[in-house]
Structure formats: C-alpha cells, structure tokens
Amino acid sequence: MILDKVTYRKLIILLLHFLDEENYKESLHSLERESKIFFNMKYFGELVMNGEWEKAEKYLSGFTKPEENNCSRELFLQLRKQKFVEEALSGEYTCRVNGETCGVVNTAPARAKLLENLKTLVEQDPELLEKLGIPSLCKSAFWKLIKLICPTPQRKLRKLKEELGFLIIQFLDEEKFHETAHELEQESRVFFNMDYFWKLLISGEWDKVEKYLSAFNLGDDECLARIFSVMKCQTRFEALDRANLFQSVKMVLEKNPFLRNKLKFPDVHKARLMTIIKQTMDWWVPYCANANWNISFENIPTVPKLCHIQLPVTSAEHDGVLPEPSGLGSRGTTCCTDVKPTNVSVVWELAEISEPTQCCALVLPDDSLEEKNVRLVYSYSGDFILAWAEDATYKLWIWRSGHILYRKVSANLQSQLYHPSSGMTMINEIGRLPQDPCFALESLGLFSAFGGRISTFCWDMFEKLATFADPSPSSTYFTFLDQNTSAIGFNDSSILIHCLSSKKNKVKLQGHEGEITCLVFSHKLNVLVSSGADAQLCVWTANGWQKLVSKFLQRLDAREAPEPSVVNHMEFHLDHIQLLLVQERQIGIYEAPLLHPLKQWVPIESDIPITFATYSCNCQTIYVSCKTGCIKVLVSKTLTIRCRINVTAYAQCAACVQVYPLSIAAHPSRPNQIAVRLSNGSVHVLEPLEYGEWGVQPPTLEDGMY
Length: 706
Hints:
Elements: H1 5-21, H2 25-35, H3 41-49, H4 53-61, H5 70-89, E1 96-97, E2 100-101, H6 108-124, H7 141-149, H8 157-174, H9 178-188, H10 194-202, H11 206-214, H12 222-233, H13 239-255, H14 272-288, E3 313-314, E4 319-320, E5 334-337, E6 351-353, E7 360-363, E8 373-378, E9 384-389, E10 394-398, E11 400-401, E12 404-405, E13 416-417, E14 438-442, E15 445-449, E16 454-458, E17 463-468, E18 475-482, E19 485-490, E20 495-499, E21 504-509, E22 516-522, E23 527-532, E24 536-541, E25 547-552, E26 569-572, E27 578-582, E28 587-591, E29 596-602, E30 610-615, E31 621-626, E32 631-635, E33 640-645, H15 653-656, E34 661-666, E35 674-678, E36 683-687
Parallel strand pairs: 5-29, 6-33
Antiparallel strand pairs: 1-2, 3-4, 7-36, 8-9, 9-10, 10-13, 11-12, 14-15, 15-16, 16-17, 18-19, 19-20, 20-21, 22-23, 23-24, 24-25, 26-27, 27-28, 28-29, 30-31, 31-32, 32-33, 34-35, 35-36
Helix pairs in contact: 1-2, 2-9, 3-4, 3-6, 4-5, 5-6, 8-9, 10-13
C-alpha cells in the first residue's frame, strides 16, 4: 500500500498533532526529525537555552548536514563553538573579586544571543525555510477521524485508543521511523518490544535498558529490582553473560502481571493504517469536489476493529483483499538465487541494458591513465568525485561550464579534472610494502594512507594539513565514529580507537587473526563491526569496547559447510540496523548487533566472483558488480533483480572484452546515479535515461508471482 505524497504528508501531520495532544513529547520530536516535515523552532530553541548540545545537533542533523549549504555549515559551527566554549569554562571555573568567590559564569545571555543568530540562519537556510510551519487542525482531528470510521461505544474508547497505538507503531516501524516507534512504545505503554529490549541489553546500553523498563508500570517486582541492581553494578558483561542476563530478565517480565498482555503485538495486516487512510480519502475526495458541501457520513467506510478486520481494497497495487497478516518484528531468513521466476501471473520482464543509447554514460577525463585509479568516492554533497591512483596521488572531478560551478555530478554534462590555482597536488607517503590505499572522507577534510603514515588533507585546496601514526603496522581501513573519533584497522589485525583532537589512542581492540578488511559503525546501536582477512566478523560495543559477537558467515543454501570467505565490503542501511555484507560468491543482509541473517543473494555461477556491491543513497536499491562485466540492480527489500547493465552500454566496444567494474560509488542524493571504476583505471558516471529508473521493479508474492 503506497499513499500519494500529498496524502502521506497529511497523515504525518495528523500524527504530529495527535502525539502533541497526547503529550507524547519524545515521540513527537523524534517523528519531526525522522519525517523531516516540520522543523520545530520552539523545541530547538529550548534545547539551545538548556545547553543540550548533543540533542540540538542530532535534531538539526535530521533536516540538514553541514555540507548542504553555507547556512547549514554555520548552524553546526555555531552550535559546536558554543558547546566548546562552555566546556572550557565549566567545572571548577570561578572568579574572585576582592578575594571572594563570585560564582560560575552565567551562560544564559550567551545562549540567548546564540539563539537569535541561529533563528536568522534557520530562516535563511533553504533546507529548513519551508519546514518552519505546520498546518493548524481542529482539536483532536486524528482521534475524531478514527472514531468516525470506527464507531465505538463510550465504554470501549480506551480499547480503541490502544488499537490505534498499535497501528501507529506498526506504521512507524514499516516506514523505518524506528526511533519514533520505540519512543512511542514507552510513552503509550501498549507494547513492550522484547526484540528491541534484547538489542539494548546485548549492546550494553544500560541507561537505555533502564529507561525502557522504567517506562512500563511493573509494580513492586523484587526480582526485577535485584536485576536492576546487578546491571548498575556491572557494566562490562561479556556477550554470554548478557545473553544469560537477558534470559533471566525475560522470564521475570513474562511473569509480571502488568506486562503479560503487552508482550505480543496483535496480528495486523501490512500497511494497515495507510490502507484505512487511503480508503477514507478515496471516499472523501468526491465529496470535496461537490460545491454544495452537503456531506452525509452515512456511507463513510467503517471498521469494526482497527487491528483485526481488513477492508477489501482495489488499487494499482492490490486486487481484492490485502495479503495475510504479518507480525511486527518477524525474524525469518530468505535466500535468493539469481534466477528468473517462473509461473508469473504479472507481466514483467528483466530490463537488460547493452547499448549506449539505453542509458546516460559519461567517461571522466583523465590525463594520467597509466596510473590506474584504485579507489573512488563521491563528496557528501554530491558535487565532485574523488579518486586515488596507484602512485598515491588524488584526482578530483568537478562539473563546470564557463564560470558556473554545478553543485551536482551529472552524466549529461562534461566534467573537468580539477587543478587548484596553487598548483599543489595531494599525495600520500607510500609504504615499503605493497598496500591498498584506505581513506575516510569527512565534511571538512580527507584522511588517507597508502601503506605509510596517515595524512589529512583539505580537499578543496589540495593542502596537506597533518601526518600522524607510525608507518608500521600499516593502516588498512578507516571509519569515523563521530567528528572527534575514528577507528583505524591495521595489517597486524589490531584496531585503534583514535581521538582526533587530542591525537591520542583511546583503546586497542584485538580479536582478529589477519589484517582488517573493513570497519563500519552504527550510530543507532553504538557498535563497531569489523571484518578481517581471517574471514571473521566481530561486533564491538562502544560502551566499554567489549566484544559482543564473533562469527564466520556461511551460505544459507549450502548443503555442506564451505570454507568461510572474506568480507570485502560492509555498509549499514539508513536504519543503522540492517548490514550489507559483500563476499566474492554472495551478498547478504544481516541484522546488527547479533548479525542474525535476514537475506542472502547468490549470483549464477558464470557471474562469480562479485567485485563490489553498495546501497543506493535511499537504500532501496543495491548495485552489484561482477567480473563478467555486468552490474546488477537489485531491489534491496527482496534482493530480486530489476535490471542488468552490461559493460557494452558504457565502455568502448574494443575494450569491453578486457575490462570489468571493480568498484561502485553511489551518489549521495540521487538513487539512480552511480560512478563505476573499471579494471583499466577509467571512471564512468551512469544514469538511466532522463527521469527514468533502472528497469521496473519485479512483482512480489503479493502481486501473484507464484
């Protein structure tokens, strides 16, 4: 069930008003941020005046990023500057007048002045300007609408509101508003999410564990009080200890009379809330066109029970009744193979792109192809592409026409290889032993190494800012945990957690037996995932840096246990829970932090090995490149192929037999644009034809596939 954008926006606005009226403030502000529809300046101002800098920056980050424009950059800069100033002045800072202590610094005037500056910037920021207002509605508009389409006796209204709570939580979960869903679970107290509670506990997030438990009325439970005491005293459980602790807590919760009816989510059809809203809107629109406005509610679509009885629906997506109910948080596992479905009742054909006329393709100009490009990445704002060559130099392509500098990469416009007026070049030290380059692009700079010491560059001026770390062991992978902390993997199997401001190492992680091949961090779960040449995956909690999980991956459809293969690339979904893992013979989607397998995709034997795979910017698509030269475009939700792009569509015919894609970079805001690095070192930008997509989404089981 898919609502049009206008109706979907109206539903979100109804929910925002409803959450505000029910005083579910944490859910309200979380939905504001995750839906990006309304920037609540009043709430943002309260965070600033209270000095809640992390919350203020997190809220702002839901709507814009520092690299979006100058106003956004200045917003983040001023927030961080004030935070830094107050931290420097806090603690034991006092002043003395005539030998007497006169107290700490009063921050209120500075914060008030800052807030005025921030308001001005917000009103000038194109990312925020149109999100500062929200339509006013009559009081209890959403609740009145629900009571209208679900007539309920007065004595049962409490039950109706409980059912509405389930529907809203299901909607938030399906639409990936996960944080809002968990906030609403706590504030409405209709559903205790054991899966979410398990993730918090296994990650060692004790404050969140206690907050979640405390939100529910558990009565005078002495056993639970003792468990709270254990959690407060010991914050460094090993993974096995946490698993045992969870089982103990689970047994207590299941016996608690106050929670007994809140541990199971009711069976609800998929997209239930959107279905009800769509049916209501379909009925309502003809009346809105009636000039007389003599509306009778006698024939309005009604629902006896919100959660359990499904209305017949006829739409472009479904013919007849919607599919069978699907419970929230089901943990099934799917293994997909690269075969074309049979017995398809829905007409559909896999799109195959083989000719240059079937897509937009651009070869980036390069005056030094004898030094092959070995790494490739877009800038965060998507206005340039950066590549690393075999000689440890860096190349940057921009899109310019005369004096006009375009803000977005395009396959329809010619690009230029950028050379700064200073004549400087970005080049890394090269280590004594051969080593693939590693890098991490941050909004204000570039961190990279080529087997030698780590260098930081200002990419717009090609200026080297600093060099640090010993050349041995060699760094093999970087990732940022936050603006001040990075994780660095080395060829001696160790991982360092490094503080950028102090230039000191916080902790050294040991657990692999080969060089580190990839690192990725989940801001939602607060865990670091590492992969190594030993084919092992490890999950580390940032709360104390203990190892939570260690495992080797196997194919789900293998009859015999094959040798584990190395993970060459990892990438978190936008929800920071689903983790894409790329190996030579398969790709898989796993659920962090326990790395529970959700889906795997195995190409046909002739397309093996896989050279790379990556999510599109909206995570609805996965691009997979193979050594045969093709790029397969998969629907990430089902891992079914919607399009195959052959190398003949974008590479010169004479070279097609000899080259193949080695890596893919996805544009940060255009889900259908990718940059591809070929084995001959050339870089190509690919897009579908104007306003198009890569093929047509294949039918699902619900559409009558089998």
